Amino acid sequence: MRFKSFALALFLLLMTTVLAAQSSLQSPMQTPGPRLGSIPPLSSDDRDNEQRAKLEKDLAKKTNRDRQAQLQRDTENLLKLANELKQSVDKSNENTLSLEVVKKAEEIERLAHSVKEKMKAN
Questions:
Q1: CA-CA distance, 41 to 50, in Å (whole number)?
Q2: Inter-residue long-range contacts of 59-66, CB under 8 Å, 24+ positions, other chains counted
Q3: Per residue of the chain (122 residues), what is the pLDDT tens digit?
């Protein structure tokens, strides 16, 4: 009887050891750690940083849209002035150079410089 009890206890001990070893071998991927969906809540500093980053990104997008719109307006105006300058030069002859032509050329120069600087501001 003692032998049967001892054999049964030894058998149960061996079985639990074997089962424990098998379960650890079969699931090496199951390591304790953060589970999907259990992301720790953000601290107020993290939320503030995220909000600030979002605001800065939105502001940069708006600034770029505004700059692009201004560039389009300026280039349309530049084209209009260049066409007017060409018409004025075509109407003049070799002996006359009107003050209007010189002013248009200077305005075109200023506007072209402004467009160039805005394009560099990427």
A1: 13
A2: none
A3: 655 555 555 555 555 555 555 555 554 455 555 555 566 666 778 888 899 999 999 999 999 999 999 999 999 999 999 999 999 888 887 777 788 888 999 999 999 999 999 888 76
Domain enclosing residue 62, as ranges = 50-122
Residue 109 belongs to a domain: yes
Residue 112 lies in a domain: yes
**Rounded to an integer, what distance in angstroms lies between the CA atom of residue 24 and that of residue 3?**
32
How far is it, in rounded angstroms, from Cα 65 to Cα 88? 35
| Count of structural domains, the chain | 1
